[in-house]
Amino acid sequence: MKDIKETTDISNLRREYIKGRLSRKDLPDNPLILFDHWLIDACKSFIPDPTAMTLATVDQNGQPYQRTVLLKYYDKKGMVFYTHFNSRKVIHLKKNPKISLHFLWHCLDRQLMILGKIEQLSMLETLKYFYKRPRESQITTWVSKQSSFISSREVLEKSFLDMKSKFKNREIPLPSFWGGFRVKFNTMEFWQGGEHRLHDRFLYQLEDNIWRINRLAP
């Protein structure tokens, strides 16, 4: 078998970023306004999963972990996502509530990094969202012991069918081990790709309830 390096050369894979520019004069005082505009643009561009965001945590040994989750709500209080309370991410966040989010919208040559801390949502907030989910997703919440070892996919599928039968013709209750978290952000960094790698980067940092804005070198 040939070494993959003999057949795959990625060193020359590149393209120019020419979709837009980002100027200081066009920036709103509040980064959430720009985030809202960018997310709307992403949705209108028919990007698959425009609300997908990489969520980064750090374990007790300082080892970073990343995974993709979906943003489900946002306002001036923060960014909201939902997960299993026994998941790896939540175990990390109990030790270190600091978190990083990252959005990548390739076809618009845009990316966004968000820094902040998490807080758990109230039971009422979680209930409202849980009963908006498709019934199958509600069932899966009961089935999946997120991040735990399983012997096979067949075990998972059987558990799903068993749980589906259990809740047949019944309202599915909210599990006590599942809920939402809000990322209370204090930093946002907007990146707009630029021609010849002269990208536009602007950093918003919250200081004394005022957003400070600085341009960063590409």
UniProtKB/TrEMBL annotation:
Binding site for substrate: R14, R15, E16, Y17, K72, Y129, R133, S137, R197, L198, H199
GO molecular function, a single term: FMN binding
Any one biological process term the GO annotation gives: pyridoxine biosynthetic process
Reaction it catalyzes: pyridoxamine 5'-phosphate + O2 + H2O = pyridoxal 5'-phosphate + H2O2 + NH4(+); pyridoxine 5'-phosphate + O2 = pyridoxal 5'-phosphate + H2O2
Cofactor section: FMN
Metabolic or biological pathway: Cofactor metabolism; pyridoxal 5'-phosphate salvage; pyridoxal 5'-phosphate from pyridoxine 5'-phosphate: step 1/1; Cofactor metabolism; pyridoxal 5'-phosphate salvage; pyridoxal 5'-phosphate from pyridoxamine 5'-phosphate: step 1/1
Domain Pyridoxine 5'-phosphate oxidase dimerisation C-terminal span(s) in chain numbering: 178-218
HAMAP family assigned: PdxH
Family: Belongs to the pyridoxamine 5'-phosphate oxidase family.
Subunit composition and interactions: Homodimer.
Protein name: Pyridoxine/pyridoxamine 5'-phosphate oxidase
Protein species of origin: Candidatus Pantoea edessiphila
Origin organism lineage: Bacteria, Pseudomonadati, Pseudomonadota, Gammaproteobacteria, Enterobacterales
Gene that encodes the chain: pdxH
